[in-house]
Design goal:
about 180 residues; mainly alpha; flat
Length: about 180
């Protein structure tokens, strides 16, 4: 059997301390070992100037270092009373049967729902009322192809004017569109 002195000497022996599961607290009362990377290990860099880079600043330490977080903060707590989600075996059977029947019927609903839908469909639909002052647009007399030709001639004239091409708008003769 070891004496107290031998036990203490072994406890503070660096070789045994390295193998032991008990670790001393990290800096600032932190739980667990320090995992901060050294300067050469850091991947985040910032430009210093002259095409050179340097490791970026360290992050600030968290304020809650050394304190254990409560379980209510780590895990989601139940919102309902304990055991309220459980169904009795009889209720489970009932629920399973209802689900089987629903799957078998292919999502068909009961008679009342069908009647409601039928009456909804048979109701007389109200037509959208047209404004009495509405006057339809007068037709130009051109078909789609002719309208496109006219539009393109106009855009061509506009580009000529913008570019300052010496073709005055007064003597500009658009192509004749055959009807």
């Amino acid at each position: 059997m070891k004496t107290f002195q031998q036990f203490i000497l072994e406890a503070y022996d660096p070789e045994i301390q390295g193998r032991s599961q008990i670790r001393k607290q990290g800096q600032g009362g932190r739980v667990g070992a320090e995992r901060k990377k050294t300067e050469p290990e850091k991947r985040r860099v910032k430009a210093v100037g002259g095409g050179k880079t340097a490791p970026a600043k360290d992050y600030k330490d968290r304020k809650d270092i050394g304190t254990q977080r409560q379980r209510s903060q780590r895990e989601q707590q139940p919102t309902q009373q304990r055991g309220s989600a459980k169904l009795s075996p009889r209720e489970q059977q009932k629920k399973a049967r209802a689900e089987r029947l629903a799957a078998k019927s292919g999502g068909k609903s009961n008679k009342k729902d069908l009647e409601k839908k039928a009456t909804e469909l048979l109701k007389k639909r109200v037509k959208a009322k047209v404004d009495p002052n509405y006057k339809p647009q007068k037709s130009s007399g051109y078909n789609n192809k002719e309208r496109r030709q006219i539009r393109r001639q106009g855009s061509k004239l506009l580009t000529h004017i913008q570019k300052g091409i010496e073709k005055s708008a007064s003597n500009y003769q658009p192509k004749k569109i055959n009807k």
